[in-house]
Specification:
The chain is mainly alpha-helical. Helix content is about 55%, strand content about 0%. The termini are far apart.
Length: about 120
């Protein structure tokens, strides 16, 4: 909550503008002037907590901002990177993992392979 109060003090208690959609960048610091707030450097769990607080306060522009910030954390990461960062174990049942691999084969590709296919 301290971060939220500081955020509004830095922005003179104004709500941020609505993010233009579709998002023109996958990095939050390219979407807003983030020099003072440094949202991109907040830990993922802090972003989640701040997002939940804005949701409870019904400040929807800030909810969208933090959804975009969290999404930017997952860009260019493959499943193994996300598992490490979020401390997920390999708790999927074998049949669930096989179904996921079949339905979403790209999820296990490295991010480099994904971008090579697009170019």
């Amino acid at each position: 909550m301290t971060w939220i109060l500081g955020y509004f003090e830095r922005h003179e208690y104004t709500i941020p503008e609505v993010l233009v959609k579709p998002l023109r960048s996958n990095m939050i610091n390219n979407l807003i002037n983030d020099d003072d707030d440094q949202i991109q450097y907040l830990p993922l769990n802090s972003k989640r907590d701040i997002l939940n607080a804005f949701d409870e306060l019904e400040i929807w522009n800030c909810v969208e901002l933090f959804c975009a910030a969290i999404a930017s954390d997952f860009r260019r990461k493959d499943l193994s990177d996300i598992r490490k960062e979020c401390a997920f174990d390999n708790s999927f049942r074998k049949q669930d993992e096989e179904r996921i691999k079949k339905e979403y084969p790209w999820i296990l590709m490295s991010h480099n392979d994904k971008y090579e296919q697009l170019s």
